[in-house]
Amino acid sequence: MKNYLQNLGKSIMLPVSILPVASLLMGIGYWIDPAGLSGAGSNQVAIFLIQAGNAIFNNLPILFSVGIATGLSKDANGAAGLSGLVGYLIVTNLLSIDGLSVLLNMPADQVPMAFGATQNVFMAIIAGTVAATLYNRYSGTKLPTALAFFSGRRLIPILSAAAMLVISLVLFFVWPFAYDALVAFGTFISGLGAFGAGLYGFFNKLLIPTGLHHALNSVFWFDLIGINDIGNFWASEGVKGVTGMYQAGFFPIMMFGLPGAALAMYKNAESKAKKIAAGTMIAGAFASFFTGITEPLEFSFMFAAPGLYLVHAFLTGVSMFVAATFHWTAGFGFSAGLVDFALSLNVPIANQPFMLFVLGLVMFVVYYFVFDFAIQKFDFATPGRGDNAVTEAAITESEAETSADKKTVSSTNNSKYAQMAHVIYDAVGGQENIRSYYNCATRLRFELEDVDQVDQAKIKGLGVPGVNVLDKNHLHVIVGTDVQFVADEMRKIEA
Question: Strand, coil or helix: what is 263?
Fold first, then answer.
């Protein structure tokens, strides 16, 4: 399970890499003209930037379905990505309000509201994982002559569609139950005062990977059961120090806590990966502080280090509890970043909002030291560590060492990647010992019949940065960021 989650985390990094740019576009546009977010703004530059950013965030699940399917497939082939997209489109269209309205022959307003929240990352993860699993198992399948056109990789979108039809049928019954259960849970904890606010903050973060946090949010933020925290805050209605309690505690986390986590992750990045890690962390921290958009940071460790994400959820709950206990309130229309914080200062019902800054500074310190300790203690695979340590230096080092040991390579091919591929392929036992393999950012990941048959000394003779035996069937060869070219040459050997 741990290996799967780490692979999933690395697959997600591809679509996540575009999020900092999207968040900055939206944040700058929102800062220029907050009304531009609703389309009512008058500043064309702001509207242009917001719409550009929204083009990414509104289609984030689509990017995830393609990225996950491609990243988890054994050879990162586009057919897997296409299959992930096919699966996602099927499940989200079948289980949409409009789709079920037609299917069940009932007015759209009578379709359970749960089906208005199916276009989320959770569905993308299901679709991408199913597509990758089918690709890895059946992409080499040969059909009878009459159906030969659909053999191999062309078969995978068809199988993915069939699988997602079955999964859609299951979700048709399960999804409303899960959604309604969360609404009931939210209704219950809404009567627990400050402690309930803390529980809400904890489960809000915990449910983000599933997309079901929207069900919980609707209880507190909107007029589902009469709380309407966002609407009442901006209308300055309700009780001062109470209205806004389900929003205020997010400000210290998004503006200060997560940037503190980003600093800790940068600090713990491998020395050769710090430059690239810094770019990701700085962009993500700025987006979180300025706009309240946390996806670039949260998704960078959500699956790669789930234990760390659980800590993040707990600390979010603590922040919500503290803010609600002391009645420090502020509100947001978009998210809990600096822009919304500044705008909420002018709302009369805001109560001691600057104390949220004080709490934020405390959370910055807490996040930094807790993340720093946890990353070192449990060796979490945060950006810049382990398989995520993508560096230009790794290329240089690998090239230099490979060149120095070229005399050990017997291949007549002039390409150093082809030479490395032949040596590694032979050293791991060739076709007889290889079940499957694929490359991530820096490694060749092998599933073998027997790791004991591997000639590690022969691989190390190439000057590769490392060889890592996971268990009796799994081996990693750390090559560097040019690993894709070695993997491509290895596939030519099998062709």
Answer: helix
- Take residue 471 and report the two structure tokens written for it: 């268990």
The one-letter amino acid at 131: A
Q: Answer yes or no: are the C-beta atoms of 175 and 113 closer than 8 Å.
A: no
Contact 153, 76 (CB under 8 A): no
Active site residue ranges: 440
Which residues are within 8 A (CB) of 91 and not within 5 positions of it... i.e. 6 or more apart?
A: 118, 123, 126, 127, 164, 167, 168, 171
How far is residue 165's CA from residue 3's CA, in Å, rounded to a whole number? 28
> What are the CA-CA distances from residue 221 to residues 23, 140, 182, 324, 493 (Å)?
22, 50, 14, 15, 58
Helical (H) or strand (E) element with 193: helix 193-207
- pLDDT tens digits for range 415-464: 778 888 999 999 999 889 998 887 765 678 888 999 999 998 888 888 77
Name the burial class of residue 177, with classes exposed (0-12), middle (13-18) and buried (19+) by CB atoms within 10 angstroms of its CB. Answer: exposed
Q: What's the CA angle centered on 373, arms 370 and 377, to 5 degrees? A: 135
- Per the CB < 8 A criterion, the answer to whether 119 and 61 are in contact is yes
- The predicted-structure confidence for 70-111, as pLDDT tens digits, reads as follows 888 877 788 899 999 999 999 999 999 999 999 988 998 889
Would the CA dihedral through 4, 70, 477, 297 be positive or negative? negative
Tokens 């979108």, residue located: 157
